[in-house]
Design goal:
Blueprint: E1 5-7, E2 13-16, H1 27-30, H2 37-61, E3 72-77, H3 83-94, E4 96-102, E5 107-112, H4 115-134, E6 147-152, H5 155-158, E7 167-172, H6 180-197, E8 201-204, E9 208-212, H7 216-225, E10 229-233, E11 236-238, E12 253-256, E13 265-270, H8 305-314, E14 323-326, E15 331-336, E16 342-344, H9 347-361, E17 365-368, H10 385-396, E18 400-404, H11 417-420, E19 439-444, E20 494-497, E21 502-506, E22 509-513, E23 520-523, E24 531-534, H12 537-554, H13 560-569, H14 585-592, E25 608-617, E26 621-628, E27 643-651, E28 666-673, E29 681-687, E30 693-699, H15 707-710, E31 733-740, H16 742-747, E32 751-760, H17 766-769, E33 776-786, H18 797-804, E34 807-809
Parallel strand pairs: 1-25, 12-14, 13-15, 13-17, 17-18, 18-19, 19-20
Antiparallel strand pairs: 1-34, 2-26, 3-5, 3-6, 4-5, 7-9, 7-10, 8-9, 11-16, 21-22, 23-24, 25-33, 26-32, 27-31, 27-33, 28-32, 29-30
Helix pairs in contact: 2-4, 8-12, 9-10, 12-13
């Protein structure tokens, strides 16, 4: 076992990044997409009639006067709205201020800032109808043909999923917009005054707020009168409780041997952690600290957080049996947000508790296994306010939250349910599992026990049916294509064991047991039950958090994004059986993410070396680094696949909440390619399509060049994430695995180059770019493994890479250290 290495090779240069030109048309070019103008004219007439009716009703429903009331119109476009190219035009010509984009820029929400200009827009819709339905010879503004339909945005559009009125979360419009000072801030003040007068408790910040213990009628009054509210929702966090087949086991039989050591701390955001189990030795703080319920953070009435905490502290070490002496990998800070199997959750209070845990105890690792299970996302739904709050928090702090996908809870009626239930929309992840800065964990059907019993999945290496899938459906060709989809954007990120349903028969009737022998054995807070059997992604998330704690203990200087990258880089694709043959590759990725987390992420060795690159890069910059390879490789007998490389890039960002397509407004990517210079080019005379001579710049290095010219060989990868298409949703996680033949090593004189580029999303407006102009911290993991022919012995790749590169050994590793996953 050898330590991973930190990359310190000197940079070969940096330059202003030149992405390859092009990448999609604009609204002017796409206006002619709709050819049947009579049908479009009829749609406009229907929209006009409905809009005027809805506007009149909304004005009538306002029960008190607010000086700054305004109306909102939702425009649906045939293609994505180019904010940078057309936002100013819509303000100047139609009196519309853009406040939110959704449906990947195909829906825009606009505030009516100038009524006279807005009336001009409606006149153009009417003229359009006169021309195409009545053959009138009058003019209309041709830019309206990019609009497919429109409607008033009203109270019914603001109401989301509501399952309680104890905590209602509000998302606000208009931060940073042209109407913020004139309309938004005065309305926000007026709402606060109304709530104070009605003695309703609330908590507001710039982008959202929460209202506590309100009733349905009072909420309706608020939505009818205050126009700056985009959405409201409530959610009860839910946990899976063991079924009736649970078999109790009594008296605790394990002892913690290192509770007095300084260990990483994991914040367990859950139902509390019982201090009446051996875990009491690992608990941080006092009972009642970090508790939004007021019931005691060291009390676990729901019998959930205690089991989560045990997996976070020990991983799988106590399985099976929970017996003997055990060394903990982490201490536990209970952060209690729920006191029963289901209750209202305050997003803002959860955020505040995470901040406090980081500030007071330096906690960097958190588990969040309670999400809005009852409200899975609809396909292609935009990011939730809860995920945005968590992403903003992680952008600010060096922390990482392990979020479960939540569980697809349904009554299993038969073996045919597997894997067909994955196809259903209800099997989509639930908020906040779509958080991009954090890491989302799904479940395999495994329970770490070799008892020869398979559950519903039929194979322990398959995903558990309760594990949820990503809600972005890249198979939906009405929205996604090569220019808009992104294979690197996946949730869950990785999978690990979480147990499985098991078929048993009661009086000859098959029953699928969620607490049987194929489930995980879980530490119980119930003193009468010692351990219980249960399943769920709630137990998978802390298992991965435990691995993160072990990595932090080995490599304490690494950022949490580097820890995230190490975890994802270790994942292995899950090979699914024939029962998944009807699922497309995209559908499988939605379920599996990057795959099953493996046990080779802790150490390097002579044949496999993991190198960590931590750096930062400014938007619109490109950097280049050399990586030199040992000379002995060119004498190896193996020609194909001599080296195997796995690589993963992670970075964090401040999300742009008002635009689904630009939620991640920054593109950062990398290439591992040829031994080229960074910024070299020459001029050539070429003929254009009209036969005219023109001077063309030919790029020969990395900057401005195509992937085809920088990649190591014809079928290798160039830039891992392409910056070409402007309507592509970009990912802050990218992974690429490939092999390298000996010929490429010889051809490139034993030197490869690692190039990293960064840019603003092409659709990010110039006005917004200033907010995202800070340097971006990046973490790039390179694992390089040499694969000799059978019987061939090669030199130590590890030692020789150190000799010819500037690579720092990150930790002193004791050879007798336990490497058990």
């Amino acid at each position: 076992m050898k330590s991973h290495l930190l990359f310190n090779n000197p940079q070969e240069g940096s330059a202003i990044y030149k992405g390859r030109p092009g990448g999609g048309g604009n609204n002017e070019e796409e206006r002619e997409i709709h050819k049947d103008y009579r049908n479009l004219a009829r749609d406009y007439d229907r929209c006009l009639s409905q809009y005027l009716h809805d506007e009149r009703k909304r004005h009538e429903d306002r029960s008190f006067e607010i000086e700054t009331n305004f109306d909102l119109i939702e425009l649906t476009f045939f293609k994505g709205f180019d904010q940078q190219g057309f936002e100013a035009y819509y303000i100047e010509t139609f009196g519309l201020v853009l406040v939110h984009l959704s449906s990947f820029n195909r829906k825009g929400l606009f505030a009516i800032e100038n009524r006279e200009k807005f009336n001009y827009l409606f006149a153009q819709f009417r003229n359009f109808g006169q021309v195409h339905l009545n053959n009138r010879n009058i003019n209309y503004n041709g830019k309206i043909t990019f609009i497919k339909r429109f409607k008033l945005f009203s109270s019914s559009d603001m109401i989301g999923n509501i399952d309680n009125y104890e905590v209602v979360h509000l998302s606000f419009l208009g931060e940073g917009s042209l109407i913020e000072d004139l309309f938004i801030d005065p309305q926000k003040d007026a709402l606060a005054e109304y709530l104070n007068t009605e003695e309703i408790s609330y908590l507001f910040n710039e982008k959202d707020g929460e209202i506590y213990n309100i009733n349905e009628d009072a909420l309706r009054i608020i939505l009818n009168n205050f126009d700056f509210i985009y959405a409201c929702c409530s959610g009860s966090g839910a946990v899976i409780v063991p079924g009736r087949f649970n078999t109790p086991r009594r008296d605790f039989g394990f002892e913690i041997t290192n509770s007095n050591e300084e260990l990483p701390i994991i914040g367990v955001i859950d139902t509390g952690v019982s201090n009446l189990t051996p875990l009491s030795e690992l608990l941080i703080g006092e009972n009642g600290d970090f508790d939004s319920t007021g019931t005691g953070s060291f009390i676990d009435n729901a019998d959930h957080g205690t089991g989560v905490a045990a997996f976070a502290a020990f991983g799988k070490k106590l399985l099976p049996g929970y017996r003997g002496r055990v060394e903990a990998d982490a201490k536990i800070l209970p952060i209690k947000i729920l006191d029963s199997s289901s209750a209202a959750i305050s997003q803002q209070k959860t955020i505040d508790l995470i901040k406090e845990a980081n500030d007071r105890y330096g906690v960097k690792i958190f588990t969040l296994t309670i999400g809005y299970t009852n409200f899975p996302f609809k396909d292609n739904q935009e990011f939730s306010s809860y995920a945005a709050l968590l992403d903003e928090l992680v952008a600010e702090l060096d922390i990482l939250i392990f979020i479960s996908t939540t569980n697809n809870v349904f009554n299993v009626s038969g073996i045919r349910d597997y894997p067909l239930k994955f196809r259903e929309e209800r099997a989509n992840i639930a908020s906040p599992a779509e958080s991009m800065n954090n890491i989302t964990i799904g479940s395999l059907a495994d329970n770490f026990e070799s008892n020869g019993i398979n559950g519903l999945a039929g194979n322990k290496e398959f995903p558990g049916i309760y594990s949820r899938k990503f809600h972005y459906d890249f198979d939906d060709q009405d929205i996604f294509n090569q220019a808009t989809s992104n294979n690197h954007l996946r949730k869950p990120d990785i999978l690990i064991a979480g147990g499985d349903y098991h078929e048993r028969f009661i009086y000859g009737i098959p029953v699928f047991d969620d607490a049987g022998e194929t489930c995980l054995e879980v530490l119980s807070a119930n003193l009468g039950e010692r351990t219980i059997r249960a399943l769920g992604t709630s137990y998978s998330a802390p298992l991965v958090a435990n691995i993160a704690a072990r990595l932090c203990r080995l490599y304490p200087s690494l950022s949490m994004q580097s820890i995230k990258a190490l975890l994802i880089n270790s994942a292995s694709e899950v090979e699914l059986g024939g029962i998944f043959n009807g699922f497309s590759k995209v559908q499988k990725r939605r379920i599996l993410g990057y795959g099953n987390i493996m046990n080779d992420m802790f150490y390097s060795d002579d044949n496999k070396v993991t190198i960590v690159i931590e750096d930062e890069i400014l938007p619109e910059q490109i950097k280049l680094f050399p990586l030199r390879l040992p000379q002995y490789l060119i004498y190896a007998n193996k020609k194909k696949g001599l080296l195997k490389v796995s690589s993963t890039l992670c970075f964090k960002f401040k999300p742009k909440r008002d635009n689904q397509l630009l939620y991640c407004p920054l593109h950062v990517s990398y290439a591992i390619g040829k031994n080229l210079e960074l910024d070299i080019s020459h001029e050539e005379q070429k003929q254009d399509k009209n036969g005219r001579e023109r001077t063309s710049t030919v790029y020969e290095g990395y900057n401005g060049n195509s992937s085809a010219e920088i990649k190591l060989y014809a079928t290798a990868k160039g830039w891992v994430q392409d910056y070409y298409y402007k309507e592509k949703i970009v990912s802050n996680v990218q992974r690429e695995n490939f092999t390298i033949p000996k010929k490429s090593i010889v051809d490139e004189d034993n030197t490869f180059k690692v190039a990293i580029n960064a840019a603003f999303h092409k659709l990010l407006s110039n006005a917004d770019r200033e907010s995202y102009s800070d340097a971006i911290a990046i973490s790039l993991i390179l694992s390089i493994e040499q694969i000799p022919l059978k019987g061939e012995t090669l030199n130590s790749l590890y030692d020789e890479l150190i000799l010819i590169n500037d690579l720092a050994v990150m930790a002193e590793i004791e050879l007798e250290a336990e490497a058990v996953f």
